[in-house]
């Protein structure tokens, strides 16, 4: 599907883009990948990594700017929407800015994709969008709803919209592993709460889930990757075995345990070998066999949360991942 196509990725200079671009170039050899983002310095640094690759094009732009999106969408076949204001405390203290990017930006993107006849759009979501308690999660839930409803908003056009949802991306900018790595020499690591758990997913797994969504989607699905959980204290012990843990309390808008599928979603959630699929409860899509395919409906009341997860990442598995990825984390 992506082979010899033109792909645009919003927020493409972020951690996800740094992994999506080389993996997609190698696997699919697309005609062009367009990177749309706001930060000229990040674009400059990324462009230096691909100096001789004419398949890449960089465009300075903001999803808040609909006119710029329309220009960027010329000739685009597929869009990955990765742009977001995502740091939880930043969103709590700057709610207007978070809403402009995460909700208004999503609406602008949908309009541009429909009018420019884009074939398929996959938007990146977060575990914080399930039963949200913070503004970031609330805006991403609203964004998810907008993208799902976009499939009926298209009218006579053929653009399809779907969402992928996953948890803490190991090694991504602003996440806990690089943060602990940067301060471990101090001998003290701040722990918000010793009971805290998080989902753990690699950037490679995130990219593969997006690929799967493009191949599988009919429109309106939310894809949830099956991934392991880990206690934050165990994570800290792997990063710095000899460091002391200082309990500093949960930050504004932070959860003790994350959730990717809530009990309310269970009525329309189906299980597959490597992921779950939440179907929309509008237009009868939740019982659409074309969307369900070979999925098995989960039990009523099913909740997929980081503390009740059947799969847990061991300290050895995390250590092996750090040993093979730490230099890469430093670069991204």
Spans with pLDDT under 50 lasting ≥5 residues?
328-332
End-to-end separation: 28 Å
CATH architecture level-2 label of the domain at 6-167 and 201-226 and 259-300 = 3-Layer(aba) Sandwich
Write down the Rg: 19 Å
Largest sheet: 10 strands, mixed
Proportion of helical residues: 25-40%
Counting helices, strands and paired strands, the structural category is: alpha/beta
Give the full name of the CATH homologous superfamily of the domain at 6-167 and 201-226 and 259-300. Answer: NAD(P)-binding Rossmann-like Domain
Strand count: 17
Task: Note the total helix count.
Answer: 11
SS strand fraction: 15-25%
Average pLDDT, to the nearest integer? Answer: 93
- The CATH C-level class name of the domain at 6-167 and 201-226 and 259-300: Alpha Beta
Strand order of the largest sheet: 3-2-1-4-5-6-10-15-14-16
Describe what you observe in this structure:
The longest helix is centred in the N-terminal third of the chain and has 21 residues, at 95-115. Helix 1 links the parallel strand 1 and strand 2. By secondary structure, this protein is α/β, with parallel strands linked by helices. The chain has helices at 15-28, 40-49, 66-72, 88-93, 95-115, 135-153, 176-183, 203-216, 232-239, 289-292, 315-331, and strands spanning 6-10, 32-37, 56-60, 78-81, 120-124, 160-165, 168-169, 188-191, 197-201, 222-225, 229-231, 244-247, 259-261, 269-271, 275-278, 296-297, 304-305.
